[in-house]
Amino acid sequence: MGKITNKRRLKVCTLFFVVLLPVFLGSCGGGSQSEQTWNVTGTTNVYHTTSGTPGEQGPDLFTFTQSGSTLIGKTPQGQSITGTVSDANITFTWVGADSVAYTYTGTIQGGGIMSGTWTATNGQSGTWRSTKSS
């Protein structure tokens, strides 16, 4: 075996950085590849807690329709829901019969499972989670 010259070493390193490194990073989720975008269209059981109040309330059956990143839907009482889905993030808002606006933000774990926090314009807040209704 002969000696590896500096010129040959430079060729090997260039090959690695130009060809193999981008392939490796692409397969490991590196680079500019975005997270999976979920579609939450359907009926969802939403459970929530209110800060300062023990226990969990629900399920409330929310109906969602998603088109691209736009989310619309209905609450169990028929109020309109508007929101967005971006990658694994979800935000939606609805206004109750009492004129209080409720905003839910959270993440989508897949399989219809979502969770996060909610706030209301009357000062209340808490956490929420959901499962896909069968």
Structure write-up:
- The chain is an alpha+beta fold.
- It folds into two domains: 1-33; 42-132, Beta Barrel (Lipocalin), CATH 2.40.128.
- Helix content is 16%, strand content 49%.
- The protein has one helix at residues 6-27; strands at 42-50, 57-67, 70-74, 80-86, 89-95, 101-110, 113-120, 125-132.
- Strands 1-2-3-4-5-6-7-8 form an eight-stranded antiparallel β-barrel.
- A hairpin with a 5-residue loop joins strand 5 (89-95) and strand 6.
- The N and C termini lie far apart (67 Å).
Topology at a glance:
Elements: H1 6-27, E1 42-50, E2 57-67, E3 70-74, E4 80-86, E5 89-95, E6 101-110, E7 113-120, E8 125-132
Antiparallel strand pairs: 1-2, 1-8, 2-3, 3-4, 4-5, 5-6, 6-7, 7-8
Descriptors for this entry?
single chain; 134 residues; alpha+beta; Lipocalin; 2 domains; eight-stranded antiparallel β-barrel; 8 strands; elongated
| Strand tally | 8
Q: In total, how many domains does the architecture comprise?
A: 2
- Global geometry: elongated
CATH architecture of the largest domain: Beta Barrel
Taking strands numbered 1, 2, ... along the chain, how are they ordered across the largest sheet?
Answer: 1-2-3-4-5-6-7-8
Query: How would you classify the helix and strand content by structural class?
Result: alpha+beta
* Portion in strands: over 45%
Count of alpha/pi helices? 1
Just give the CATH class of the largest domain: Mainly Beta
* Rg computed from alpha carbons, rounded to a whole number of angstroms: 24 Å
Biggest pleated sheet = 8 strands, antiparallel, barrel
Helical content stands at 10-25%
Mean pLDDT comes to 83
The string of secondary-structure elements, in order, is: HEEEEEEEE
State the distance separating the first and last CA atoms.
67 Å
CATH superfamily descriptor of the largest domain? Quinohemoprotein amine dehydrogenase alpha subunit, domain 2
Kindly report the CATH topology of the largest domain.
Lipocalin
Unreliable stretches:
15-34
